[in-house]
Amino acid sequence: MLTSQRKKLILDALKRDGQVLAKALSDTFGVSEDTVRRDLRELAAEGKLQRVHGGALAASPAVANLAGRRAIGSKAKAAIGRAAAQMIAPGQIAFVDGGTTAIQLVRHLPIDLRATIVTHSPSVAVELAEHEALEVIVIGGRLFRHSMVTVGAAAIEALGHIRADLYFMGVTGVHREAGLSTGDLEEAYVKRALVARAAETVVLASSEKLNAASAYMIAGIDAASAILVEKDTPESTTAPFEASGVTILRA
């Protein structure tokens, strides 16, 4: 079997099953595990999968640049953002992450909502400029341009002084075993700090992020109080998360 054929079959299996094991692939293809591992390394270098111990997981396309992410699932993100916005009650304090789905969330907030939004995303803060009834707190730090959020020690220190009712988390990967993940180490640290300071964490997850993984783990799947997905997401996709005790909300 040609290398290109093996790689196609590996990607087909990832799309179907969400993960592959090097030993099983070695048996299926009749080649050594070293050969399979080389295939996995090359596919990982192309950004087509995320290697883990013993095999690989599907890679999330949500690690693309900001312009690229805006083009992925825009209708689904708008629906998820609209549903998330309805979860914020008057008087509550909510952490709102950065990213394209978070932008949709704040765009759907009622103009007369009286609440407090805490964000480390300058883009989210700008979207709220006309919401005079909202208290908007912007967390400072080093600007991570890929996601247009602040990261670093200054951001984490500031978050340590705030307690929120809700945290709306953006991720690039949601996987039962690999947990909640993102493509940048410092961003993962900030998200972890946000989880620790919120009573409930709601993960905003359009379909391309489900059963996918990125390099840096934020937390296990049990850190999520709920995962908000698009309404037509198959139950077979969400069932593993529900089996882990996470509530699935549909937009």
Description:
InterPro entries: Carb_Metab_HTH_regulators, DeoR-like_C, DeoR_HTH, NagB/RpiA_transferase-like, Tscrpt_reg_HTH_DeoR_CS, WH-like_DNA-bd_sf, WH_DNA-bd_sf. With 251 residues, this protein is of the alpha/beta class. The chain folds into two domains: 3-59, Arc Repressor Mutant, subunit A (Orthogonal Bundle), CATH 1.10.10.10; 66-250, Rossmann fold (3-Layer(aba) Sandwich). The chain is 38% helix and 26% strand. It has ten helices and 16 strands. The strands form four sheets. The protein has a seven-stranded parallel sheet with strand order 6-5-4-9-12-15-16, with helices on both faces. Strands 1, 2, 3 and 13 form a four-stranded mixed sheet that branches. Strands 10-11-14 form a three-stranded antiparallel sheet. Helix 2 packs across helix 3 (33-45) and helix 5 packs across helix 6 (100-107). The longest helix is centred in the first third of the chain and has 15 residues, at 3-17. The radius of gyration is 19 Å and the shape is elongated. The model has no long low-confidence stretch (mean pLDDT 92).
